[in-house]
Amino acid sequence: MKRWLPFEWIVAIRFLLEGKLQSIFIIVGISIGVGVIVFMSAMLTGLQANFIKRVLTSQAHIQILPPDQLARPQRHGLHEIEDAIIQRPSQRLVSIDQWQKIRRQLEAMPEISVVAPTATGSALAKRGDASRAITLNGVEPETYFSVVRIPDFLIQGQARLLSDDILVGIELAKDLGATVGDKLNVTTSSGGGRILTIIGLLDFGNKGANSRSTFVSLRTAQSLLGMLGGVATIDLSVKDIYAAEDIAQNIQSSDDVIADSWIKTNAQFFTAIRAQNLTNMLIRVFVGLSVAFGIAAVLVVSVIQRSRDIGILRAMGTSRGQIMRLFLIQGGVLGFFGSLIGSALGGFALIYWHATARQADGSELFPLIVEYQLFGWTALLATFTGLLAAMAPALRAAKLDPVVAIRG
Amino acid sequence: MDNSILTLNKINKIYNPGEPSEVAVLHDIDMEMKKGEFVAIMGPSGSGKSTLLNIIGLLDRPTSGQLSIHGQDTSGLEDAELTHLRGHKIGFVFQYHYLISAFTALENVMMPMLADHGFQTEQAEQRATELIQKVGLSHVAHHRSNNMSGGQQQRVAIARGLAMNPDLLLADEPTGNLDTESTKSIFELMREVNRTSGTSILLITHNHNLGRQCDRIIQVVDGRIVS
């Protein structure tokens, strides 16, 4: 007999050990439930992290734009208003007003990690007889490369942006028959023109982006686009990506700019993630419920099987409280061990699936994110579920009339 | 009064009172038991012997009447107090399903001591070992109870009944389904316990031979004491 355990624990564990088959079956049942929860949660977390990473490595968390240009009706006098039909003006490329001041403000905000001003506009790239319309992104590599990880997309050359360097998408390079080291003649509608050297090729995994995107240094873009000293957008990285929308609204309300968060610009994607999380939660709840009812069912049967033992225990001076704890402990122990085995099961399934399931290109389908808290919480929750499930059987056992119990 | 371990005063027991299935099992039972007495309760089946024993053992409550143990009136006590009193003053030996099968003989004897929290495990084990020795079962102390003969099980049950050194040992036909040889040795064991440790014993039995060897016999017929 184990010396370090209190009476109720000794009896509870003996009862569980004696009804071996019952205990094993219910522990297997709990393990499967817990395994499913652990596997699904970890996989979903991984998949989502992967999706979000993919979305967010090619775009900023928040993009600051100048306010839309609006036409204002002319008024003759103070109180005279004309019913003018106002046509929306075409949006010229303009700089964000006082962007250096806004930049300093943004850099001072603790929730923002990177502030990267860019000068973006359309241009024409020519090489020999071929010409292509391109999007010219003027960026400061030291800041912008932390917002959009351009070096990650580089497949040839180097990610460097001196004043005559240009990084181009591979599709564009193919169309122009150019490669690293070749020169492009880039002209813009504002009359700017310059010869730039291809320093690297980029593959964004998207044909549209690959055939249009180019990156040059901020100053080069400013001069080409005719917006000397100005920037068209400020791209931001934030520390908590899920807070991006709140931060964006904050910025928008304090400065005369437009702030678009990734949550707003990828509304559909974000809705999908929310739906996934909800489904995940529902599955957890219902698996948890079925585990709880399983434990309760086994313990109810056990109370009936053990009614004579309960009667004898009561006759020899065991209190109602002790009988009750005896069954609560059984529920808790079942839940705890079930969760341990289940966590291991879920963990193995995760590792196995991670090793075998691959994407078309052979890269991993989802990153293996093992959150130790997940295991801890699962164990805690399963133990608690066991205790809760044991409540009804334990009460029933405690209420047993010893005379009836002994008579059987 | 000092000398009496048990006093019953006009004990009635009615099952399902007020319902069509109402059954009166015990009628105005008056009874007294002195310290160190060895009393047999005899009577035909269904006469209310076991109900009487359960009431005396505080497992059941009388419908009316007064039950005192050691001069302490039990009628106003809470369930928890009754449990405590039962654990400390009274030991039980039943006819069937004697022991808890998940435990060894020694552990079964330790149970009442551990349940009470009053004993350290070492103390309990020491006392249980002594009791097991006293009932002559040292050689099977570590056997599971379902691997023992009926006589052996009943000896363990007696050892367990004595674990808390109770004033009163209640035995409900402990020899009811034992062979003659075991019956004899179990009875001798109880007699010896009664003599050496002064434990009062109340024994329900159908066996006249055993009844005659007790200090006195209480005859119960139809819920009344007839002699």
Key traits:
heterodimer, A: 408 residues, alpha+beta, 15 helices, B: 227 residues, Rossmann fold, four-stranded antiparallel sheet, 7 helices, 10 strands
General description of the model:
The complex is a heterodimer of chains A (about 400) and B (about 230). Chain A is of the alpha+beta class. Chain A contains 15 helices and ten strands. In chain A, α1 (about 5-20) packs across α13 (about 320-355), α2 packs across α13 and α11 runs parallel beside α14 (about 370-400). The model of chain A has no long low-confidence stretch (mean pLDDT about 85). Chain B has a single domain (about 5-225), classed as Rossmann fold (3-Layer(aba) Sandwich), CATH 3.40.50. Chain B contains seven helices and ten strands. In chain B, β1 (about 5-15) and β2 form a beta hairpin. In chain B, α3 (about 105-115) crosses α4 (about 120-135), α3 (about 105-115) packs parallel to α5 (about 150-160) and α4 crosses α5. The longest helix of chain B is centred in the last third of the chain and has 18 residues, at about 180-195. Chain B is globular and about 50 Å long. The model of chain B has no long low-confidence stretch (mean pLDDT about 90). The chains are: A alpha+beta (about 400), B alpha/beta (about 230). Chains A and B meet through α1, α12, α13 and α15 of A and α2, α3 and α4 of B.
